[in-house]
Design goal:
The protein is mainly α. It has a single domain, classed as lambda repressor-like DNA-binding domains (434 Repressor (Amino-terminal Domain)), CATH 1.10.260.40. The chain is built from five helices and no strands. Helix 2 crosses helix 3. GO terms for molecular function: DNA binding.
Length: 82
Amino acid sequence: MEKMIERFMDQIVENVKAERTKRGISQLALAQILGHKSPNYVAKIETRKHDVSYNLEHLYRIASEFGLEVTDLIPQVKKATK
C-alpha cells in the first residue's frame, strides 16, 4: 500500500511539473504562487527526497493560476497504482 501511495504522490508532482514547464513557469514563480519566497520549496517537492509534498491548498492555488481544475492535477487511482 505504501508504494502505491508513493506512486500516486509522485504522479501528482509530475503532473504539476509538466504543467509548470509547459507554461514556462519557474520554480520561483510557482513558489510565489504557493506563498513562498524561495524556489527551494518547489525544488524539494519536485525531487521527492525531503518528505515534502503538495497539499490540497497548493493544488487549488496551482489549478486556479493555471486555469485548470484540481482534478486535472490528480491522477486516477487505478492508473496511479499500477
